[in-house]
Amino acid sequence: MRAPGDETADGSTVRRAAVARAPVDVGHHGAMSDTTVRPARTDDVPRIHALVHELAAYEREPDSCTVTVDQLRTALFGDAPALFAHVAVVDDDVVGTAIWFLNYSTWDGAHGIYLEDLFVRPDVRGRGAGRDLLATLARLCAARGYSRLTWSVLDWNAPSIAFYESLGARPMDGWSTYRLSGPALAALGAPPTP
């Protein structure tokens, strides 16, 4: 996985001058688990893709997930990646992933991480992989001067909510998430009519 400032496969630097920093090694072996967390590699993409589809099924939206392996590979490892990922590995098997991108707080004057997806296979939950993935991102925030780690959770997902709150995360009361997609996005983005 390459973050802004890291080298691409051809030796050039990922360009994002506002956030370019030396690479930070935040991979680790979980202190209380048998999990190793590391930045995703290109050969992890098929497994990450499968985990994303498992997450969509868990979130009761399997037909809404249409991302392909090639789309993920390009987003994570293309010429100008805007998506990043870490994986949790147990016994050489990718069992979980944290997929994220940078955001920016105009109030804090600093970047942050938005966690798009966090998923650990059900058969290895409770062994620390989810915590290890989040701890890795928290260390990355600290090392790079990012001010926050933010994500969304479905309101019916009580096990995940309890897990996040056990780590000290709190809901952002008073905020609602809005989305434009499909026909509404196309209509708003349509050229003005004369």
UniProtKB/TrEMBL annotation:
**Highest taxon of the source?**
Bacteria
Pfam families registered for this protein in UniProt: Acetyltransf_1
Q: Where is the N-acetyltransferase domain?
A: 35-191
Q: Does the keyword Acyltransferase apply?
A: yes
GO MF terms here are: N-acetyltransferase activity
Keywords linked to the UniProt accession:
Acyltransferase, Transferase
* Family note: Belongs to the acetyltransferase family.
State what protein this is by name. Answer: Acetyltransferase, GNAT family
Species this chain originates from: Aeromicrobium marinum DSM 15272
